Amino acid sequence: MASDFKLDLPFRPRRLRRTASLRAMVEETVLHPADFIAPLFVVEGKARPDPIASMPGVFRLSLRDLVKECRALHQLGVPAVALFPKLDPKLKDADGTQALNPDTLVLRAVRAVKDAVPELTVITDVALDPYTSHGHDGVLNAAMDNVANDATVAILREMAVLQAEAGVDLVAPSDMMDGRVGAIRKALDAAGYTDTGILAYSAKYNSAYYGPFRDAVGSAQAAGTKLLSKATYQMNPANRREAIEEVLLDIAEGADMVMVKPAGLYLDIIREVRNATNRPVAAYQISGEYAQIHAAAQLGWLDLARCRHESLLAIKRAGADLILTYFAKEMAGLLAK
Ligand code: PBG
């Protein structure tokens, strides 16, 4: 029963939510295909796309299928891809030797993609985790109880130069070693790659939500039954101020863009980083964020399409200019309609 009670209000916020047209007029954040970077997994051989159980709709791709996928992404307006190789376990060793093989899988992938779709921005990870038998992002110290920082950075420099030589637009150091951005910048410049940029994983947290990705590249299997803890290099999820320190350090060392990772659980960090720098800020909606939306949708507990959109909108609203997401292709397809 409608009552005749009337509030005397000077401003009623609901006025601007009354119609779809008004709501669209005052909408503050809009997603575009150009906001997204698609992470892609690549494998040796010519096999059909190999599904990743914990990441529905995501596949490990042969070089041929990778090129096809890149063409499709480019046509949909997605400006960039980030390539991740899954190596044959037989090729992994304690020092991640294959990372410096000039013909290693990811470098062949870069050449193939740049050859077929030169306008597409190609990004590669500079980190050892796909290559090490223990699954860590670096080489171990003599006592074998921690990752050795400087010895790891020495390898990263060479990796970055190989990637630049293969034609990547941006190298993305992702292991949180100290001093890596500066060392990579120097190495790139010395080799003549002054135009190759650095997208630094600056505030990368030691997250439990990386699980599905580690299945996808096999770094969890490499670690075996031993829990793979990256707590001595990735950031403590409890820390906020430290993220700003990391970002400012990376910028001082020459990062062109900085990244926060994961994204959805770290919206406060994205916003603080946004306020602390005028450099472009990227955020990585990681495998576990993707998996949990799919899992809840499969149980019928959440609506996939709406959660997908809202999760990405929140990341952009928090201040991210670019979002790495496994939803990139389907979102670009939807937004293009
Ligand atoms: C490590 C790396 C990780 C991811 C990309 N590169 C995390 C890790 O294993 O520590 C995670 C991406 C994801 O979960 O989607 N260099």
Describe this structure as you would to a colleague.
The chain is 39% helix and 15% strand. The model has no long low-confidence stretch (mean pLDDT 95). A hairpin with a 7-residue loop joins strand 2 (50-51) and strand 3 (59-61). It is an alpha/beta fold. It has a single domain (30-335), classed as Aldolase class I (TIM Barrel, Alpha-Beta Barrel), CATH 3.20.20. It has an 8-stranded parallel β-barrel, surrounded by 9 helices. The chain has helices spanning 20-25, 63-75, 105-116, 149-166, 180-190, 211-217, 219-223, 241-253, 267-276, 287-298, 304-318, 328-336; strands at residues 36-42, 50-51, 59-61, 80-85, 121-126, 170-173, 197-204, 257-261, 281-285, 322-325. It contains 12 helices and 10 strands. Ligand PBG binds next to helix 6.
The number of helical runs is 12
Question: Can you list the ligands bound to this structure?
Answer: ligand PBG
Report the sheet-strand fraction.
5-15%
CATH architecture: Alpha-Beta Barrel
List its traits.
10 strands; 12 helices; globular; 39% helix; 8-stranded parallel beta barrel; TIM Barrel; binds ligand PBG; alpha/beta; single chain; 337 residues
Secondary structure topology:
Layout: H1 20-25, E1 36-42, E2 50-51, E3 59-61, H2 63-75, E4 80-85, H3 105-116, E5 121-126, H4 149-166, E6 170-173, H5 180-190, E7 197-204, H6 211-217, H7 219-223, H8 241-253, E8 257-261, H9 267-276, E9 281-285, H10 287-298, H11 304-318, E10 322-325, H12 328-336
Helix pairs in contact: 2-3, 4-5, 8-9
This protein binds ligand PBG.
